[in-house]
Amino acid sequence: MDNERYKAIPLCAIIPGTLPDFQIYIRTSEGRFILWTVQGNKVKAEQLGRLSRGGHMEVFIDIEDEFKYDQHLEANLGDILENEYASDIDKSSIFTKVSTNIVKSSVEASMGMGTMDADAIQRTRSMVDSAMRFITASKSLHALVKLTGHDYQTYEHATKVLWFTVAFLWNYPDILDQINPDRETVNDEQRMEILKQCGVGALLHDIGKALIAPSILNKNGPLTEVEWEIVKRHPLSSLAMLVDSDLPIFVKKGILHHHENYHGGGYPMGLEGESITILARVLRIIDVFEAMTSRRPYKKAFSPLKALQIMMGKQESDKDQQLDERDNGMTQCFDEDLLRKFVAFLGMVK
Fold first, then answer.
1. 343/133 Cα distance (integer angstroms)
2. For residues 335 and 278, what is the distance between their CA atoms, to the nearest angstrom?
3. Which of 151, 119, 350 is nearest to 246 (CA)?
4. How far is CA 37 from CA 15, 201, 228, in A?
5. Are the C-beta atoms of 160 and 92 separated by less than 8 Å?
6. In the 3-class helix/strand/coil scheme, how is 221-286 assigned residue by residue?
7. Residues 175, 169: contact at Cβ < 8 Å?
8. Quick check: 265 and 329 in contact, CB under 8 A?
9. For the chain, which has fewer Cβ within 10 Å, the N-terminal or C-terminal residue?
10. Secondary structure class of 183 (helix, strand, coil)
């Protein structure tokens, strides 16, 4: 019965010197839950060290305090991601949880207004800033790769697209410089600001899907013609939700154009070639790769190698993994130069 009352959280989520707004419990070898620290008490590094040495890699909270715990994670995300004693898997899981919550709550808050408010955008920027320090300063991308193949869910998908986008562009500053709308030589500080804006665009690229019925997004089978037309509206819906924000034009265009195909036939505007912004071309590749390597309601996950082979037109899917209509015509979708660089990038992080 107690097991249903308590929720396990990783030890690394508790930051020394903070005042958690919730009580923390530990579980004994007999399975009993014992109060470890009360709400509002500062947790000391020595206390955490003793727990770790005692084999406690997780602690517990009352499920009624989960919302307070989520707020704690968001407020302390930067410190958690910089914790040298935390595993990359724990860090990436916490990062996914925080960013998922931010995108989800931002979308829900915007539903009544049709646009995202300034607070939602600022929360997103703050999270991206914390994530960038983690992604670019550590060799932790392999942790994200291990998370692929889990349930396909719009918010988690957005988180992973953010992660891959920032890490990819960090490794190819020449692409980042081309994204710069001024097309002038920039210093490192300006380049990092552009990278942050690209990360915000990556995280928000699919927010328009919030306006699509779950019965369509999660349909276990081919979409009807009407359903497909509804899905194809989501880039326009995403732009509408962000139109009044102060995001740069190149970010808004990246979101609007991320389903345009380099060789034509994409949507919503039917653009092709250089008329598609570079950020949109990057998002086109990463969006497809992440979706194909995650388990979706209508198909199993492909391995990263299989997904890349299909994207490059090198191999058809196996008989037990038939391509859905949403994955057809891959070779016409991508800027081949960017796709080759993305393949090389994935080789770097294995």
1. 23
2. 9
3. 119
4. 13, 40, 52
5. no
6. CCCCHHHHHHHCCHHHHHHHHHCCCCCCHHHHHHHHCCCCCCCCCCCCCCCCHHHCCHHHHHHHHH
7. yes
8. yes
9. N
10. coil
The whole-angstrom separation of Cα 98 and Cα 318 is: 36
| Residue listed under structure tokens 């130069």 | 337
Element (H, E) at 339: helix 336-349
Q: How far are the Cα atoms of 25, 110, 140, 144, 149 from residue 157, in angstroms, in the given order?
A: 32, 20, 18, 11, 11
Q: Measured between alpha carbons, how far is 315 from 335 in angstroms, rounded to an integer? A: 19
H-type helices in 57-117, by residue range?
Answer: 66-75, 77-81, 88-110
From 64, 86, 102, select the one nearest 143 (Cα to Cα): 86
Record the tokens describing residue 161, joined without a space. Answer: 């697209």
User: Residues 142-194: pLDDT tens digits?
Assistant: 444 444 433 346 667 887 888 788 878 888 888 988 887 666 667 777 888 88
Characterise 23 by phi-psi region: left (phi > 0), alpha (psi -120 to 50), beta (else).
Answer: beta
Residue of 63, 47, 46 whose CA lies nearest to 9: 63
Q: What are phi and psi of 253, to 5 degrees?
A: -65, -35
The answer to whether residues 293 and 302 touch, using CB atoms and an 8 Å cutoff, is yes
Q: How many other C-beta atoms lie within 10 A of the C-beta of residue 149?
A: 15
Instruction: Evaluate if pTM is beyond 0.90.
Output: no
**Residue ranges of the chain with per-residue pLDDT less than 70:** 1-3, 84-85, 100, 102-155, 181-185, 297-298, 315-329, 348-350
Q: How far apart are CA 277 and CA 77, in angstroms?
A: 31
